[in-house]
């Protein structure tokens, strides 16, 4: 018998803990409730409160399916017409007043996103916030109950034989999305005002990139982007840190302080961002067949092409961006929500890459394969026409975690 379903519009606010993200559509934000009986679940006030780490641990251990019983941020929000990628550096992060201002802003994310989203319920507004490794150390160094996510570390620069991926600074990432540009603008304005302006601001804007949807989700190179994104139940399994990812040597993990502290990472996601600019003159000098061999897909129909076996100095993007476990044969997916950006007047045109993953090493391995090559020297051919200007790593904790910062 099919379990009853209910759909909820997600604005980046805290979703009641009784909801299970067993079925999340990439392009239609719906949440399927579990069937705990013949009648739908009733959402009490207590169910709407963020879970403590102890309660979270107990629920995780008792659920055979190991689903995440807490509310992640709106990582799975559908592809929208507009997006803003805002990277901030925190000034004097060791100062207590600065840390308090940042914690207060993060704790208020739910209320601020709701305030903007309510202006147009059809605008599908959402925002995901990521915290950098260095800032995490400053914010939670005095708290034994908040353990740093196991893989969170600064972006590792990569240097291949011909191309390099630089590491750039950034303490906070705000991935802002909506169907309307004014909603993104209003949220960013309110956010920066809350952190102070001018000399009084506790942050500095490192990068502000405004993206837009280009035709049928294509990049400015003319190809459909994000085809390999996970869908349905595979989405949270690929993107969200699960309880099973947290190791513990105790027979009763819930009694282990290290386990309870580490469980603050559950429901979160590692995020890597890079800002690529394209050499459109060189790219447009290629014919369609040559462009397709670079990407590994057909341009018109987006069909996957067979790998080229002949010896060359580079490989197709599709081939090197696919990570397969050599022992199990399992393919590790990440969620890409890339967007084109640019100005024809200045000639700066590019793609803003943003990848969400349950495991940071998967994204790092993908980038290493692209820039170094497999074997070394056989780099990703797209890098001959597209150059990264930035590279930063963050961790997007659950919405429940952020709310508890207050």
Automatic annotation (TrEMBL):
Q: What family does the database annotate?
A: Belongs to the DyP-type peroxidase family.
- Which domain of life does this protein belong to? Eukaryota
Give the originating organism: Apiospora kogelbergensis
Listed under GO cellular component are:
cytosol
Q: Name one GO molecular function term.
A: peroxidase activity
Q: Which cofactor does it need?
A: heme b
Designated name of the protein: Iron-dependent peroxidase
Provide this UniProt record's keywords sorted from A to Z.
Iron, Metal-binding, Oxidoreductase, Peroxidase
Task: Specify the Dyp-type peroxidase C-terminal domain's residue ranges.
Answer: 216-399
* Family matches, as InterPro entries: Dimeric_a/b-barrel, Dyp_perox_C, Dyp_perox_N, Dyp_peroxidase
All residue ranges annotated as the Dyp-type peroxidase N-terminal domain in the record: 74-213
Q: Which residues form a coiled coil?
A: none
């Amino acid at each position: 018998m099919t379990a009853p379903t209910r759909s909820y519009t997600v604005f980046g606010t805290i979703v009641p803990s009784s909801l299970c993200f067993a079925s999340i559509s990439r392009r239609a934000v719906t949440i399927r409730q579990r069937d705990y009986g013949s009648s739908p679940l009733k959402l009490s006030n207590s169910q709407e409160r963020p879970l403590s780490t102890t309660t979270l641990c107990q629920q995780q251990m008792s659920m055979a399916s190991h689903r995440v019983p807490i509310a992640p941020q709106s990582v799975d929000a559908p592809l929208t017409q507009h997006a803003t990628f805002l990277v901030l550096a925190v000034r004097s992060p060791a100062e207590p007043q600065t840390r308090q201002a940042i914690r207060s802003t993060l704790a208020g994310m739910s209320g601020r996103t709701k305030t903007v989203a309510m202006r147009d319920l059809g605008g599908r507004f959402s925002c995901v916030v990521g915290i950098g490794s260095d800032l995490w150390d400053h914010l939670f160094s005095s708290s034994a109950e908040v353990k740093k996510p196991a893989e969170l570390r600064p972006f590792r620069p990569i240097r291949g034989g011909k191309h390099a991926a630089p590491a750039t600074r950034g303490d906070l990432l705000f991935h802002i999305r909506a169907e309307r540009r004014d909603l993104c603008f209003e949220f960013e304005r309110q956010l920066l005002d809350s952190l102070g302006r001018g000399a009084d601001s506790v942050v500095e804007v490192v990068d502000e990139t405004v993206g837009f949807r280009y035709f049928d989700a294509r990049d400015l190179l003319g190809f459909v982007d994000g085809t390999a994104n996970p869908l349905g139940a595979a989405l949270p399994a690929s993107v969200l840190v699960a309880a099973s990812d947290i190791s513990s040597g105790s027979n009763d993990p819930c009694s282990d302080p290290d386990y309870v502290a580490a469980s603050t990472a559950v429901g979160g996601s590692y995020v890597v961002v890079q800002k690529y600019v394209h050499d459109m003159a060189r790219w447009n000098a290629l014919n369609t067949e040559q462009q397709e061999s670079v990407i590994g897909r057909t341009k018109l129909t987006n069909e996957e092409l067979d790998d080229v076996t002949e010896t060359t100095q580079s490989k197709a993007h599709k081939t090197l961006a696919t990570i397969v476990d050599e022992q199990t044969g399992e393919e590790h997916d990440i969620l890409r929500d890339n967007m084109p950006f640019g100005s024809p007047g200045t000639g700066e045109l590019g793609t803003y890459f943003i990848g969400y993953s349950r495991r940071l090493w998967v994204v790092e391995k993908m980038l290493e394969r692209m820039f170094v090559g497999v074997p070394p020297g056989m780099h990703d051919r797209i890098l001959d026409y597209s150059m990264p200007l930035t590279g930063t790593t963050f961790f997007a904790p659950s919405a429940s975690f952020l709310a508890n910062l207050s």
